[in-house]
Amino acid sequence: MALSEAWLKANNGKEREAVEVVADRDSMSVRISPKGKIVFQLRYRFNNKQERVDLGTYPHISLKDARLEATRLRGLLDQNKNPKLELLVEKEKNINPVTFKEVFLMWYESYCSKNKKEHESIKRMFENHLFNKLGNHPIDRIDISDWLGIFEELAGRIPGTAKNLLSNTKQMLKWAAKRKYIQTNILADVYPKADLNITSIPTKRVLTDDEIVVFYECLKWSRLTTKNKIFLELCLIFACRNGELRRAEKKHFDLKRKIWKVPPSNHKTGYKNDKTLIRPILPYMEDLIREAMELSEGKYLFSNGKNIDEYLTDPASTALPNSVIGWVKRFKKETMEHWSLHDLRRTARTNFSAFSKNRDIHEIMIGHVLPNNQEVYDLYGYVLEQAEVYEKWIEKLERLKG
Hints:
The chain has helices at 5-11, 63-78, 83-95, 100-115, 119-134, 144-157, 159-178, 192-196, 209-221, 226-238, 242-246, 270-273, 283-295, 314-318, 320-331, 341-355, 359-365, 374-377, 383-401, and strands at residues 20-23, 28-32, 38-46, 49-58, 253-254, 259-262, 277-280, 303-304, 307-311. The protein has three domains: 5-95, Double Stranded RNA Binding Domain, CATH 3.30.160.390; 100-196, Tyrosine recombinase, N-terminal domain (DNA polymerase, domain 1), CATH 1.10.150.130; 209-401, hpI Integrase, Chain A (Orthogonal Bundle). The protein is elongated and about 105 Å long. The mean pLDDT is 92. With 402 residues, it is an alpha+beta fold.
C-alpha cells in the first residue's frame, strides 16, 4: 500500500522489536528503526548493482517532499548519473560552498591579470565595493536582488565606477558559468543605462593655455618629487596613456635611434593587433627620460617608490592631478577645475590638430587603431611625421613655460 501522512504520524517514534521496511511507490520506501525513527529511502539499480540512498528523516521532510526528491533522483538515472554520488557532491557543495571571493580570485589569476591592463584597479574595485558585502557568500546563492541592490546604490553615487564594476562582474560570472561554479550568469541581461539609469556623457575636459602655464608653475615650485614631475610632463607631451608610461621599462627607450617602443602588452589595443607602438624621442623628451632613468634604480622608468622591481601603481599616478590642483589652491589662491591624467592626453591631442591636418598621424601618436583596416596594409610607423607634430607641441609648451 502507499504511505500516508496519517500512517507516518502514527508510527513515528513508536518502538518495535526490529527494523521494519515499508514500501511506498516508485521504488521509495521507509525504514523504521526499533526506536521508531522513520527514514525515507530510494532503491534503484545502477551499473547492474542494487543501490539504496536515504532521502531524509520524517517529519523533517514530509511525504510529499520525499516523493518529489525520489522523482528528481530517478531523473538522474536517465542521465546515467548515480543518485548516491550526486547527493554526496551536493552535500559537499553545501558544506564547503565556493564563495564569491574565491571565484573572483580564480578568475583574476587565470584571466583578468593576464588579459586586462588595469587588472590591479579592477581588483581594488572589487575589494572596495563587493568583498565586504558578498565576498563570503556562496556564489551560486547570490540572488539578482543582491546584485542590483549594490549596483543601484553605486550608480547613484559613483556611476562611472558602477558601470565599470558591472562590466567586470558580468565577465567574471560568464567565466564562472562556463566552469559550472554557477548555473547561469544572472547579470547577463543587466545593462547600465536600461537598469541602472547610467548615462555616459563624454568628458570634454581640456586644459587651457592659461592652465598649462599654472601646471608648469606647479612643476617648478611645488614639493612634488622630481620623478612625479617628469611623469606628469611626459604624459602631457607624449599624449600617451598613463599606463603605457607607468609600465615602461628603460630598455623600451632606444636613445640611439631616438624612439620609444611600447610593446603590445603595455598598451590598450595591443591584445587586438599585437602591434608595438613607436613614438619618436625629441631632444627635450630625451633629457626628461634620461633624468628619470637616473632617478630609478630598477628596470622601470618609473618604479613604485622603494619597490624598485615594481612599476608605479595606478593609484599613485592618478593621485598626482589632485596634488597639482591642491598646490594651486594653497599657493595661488585659485580654484583649478578638476582634471585627470587622461585629460592631459586629450589636451595634447586637441593641440595636435592645430599643428597638422593629418588626423591619422594624430591617432597614431595617441595609440588609437586606424579605421578601415589601414593597420593591416599600412605598416609604416610615421615616426618622422609624428616628430614634426611633437616638435611644434614642445615649442608651444616652452613658450607657455616662459
